[in-house]
User: What shape does this take?
Amino acid sequence: MESSILTCMGSDHWLGRLEVDLKTRPKNCPFKFEAFWLRAQGLLKRIEEWWIGSDPQCRNSMYTFQLKIKELNKKLRKWNKEDLVTLSRKKMRLKEKWWKSKKKSSRRGGLMNESKKDC
Assistant: This one.
């Protein structure tokens, strides 16, 4: 991260410039529920099992709720990292195969159309 103060003529305010390197991900990034997770087969059942299976012993119900949310967050992140990454890799491979087959079929179709024009 890099910052600097820019001069501003005719004002009592100072402009600041802040450059942030977005390639690195902060360790304490906020939890973000991804909408496409809902399309993953069996995830809602897993979430329910994780929620029921989590049973922190606290007197305060709000604190218990917070602990359950934290535990669910960890499990979702782990699931996203391990299971979903393998699914997305499979999806990418299938897309690559589909594009290759589409290119091959368009080449064949293109050659057939050219040969028909010659007749």
Notes: Helices lie at 43-53, 61-118.
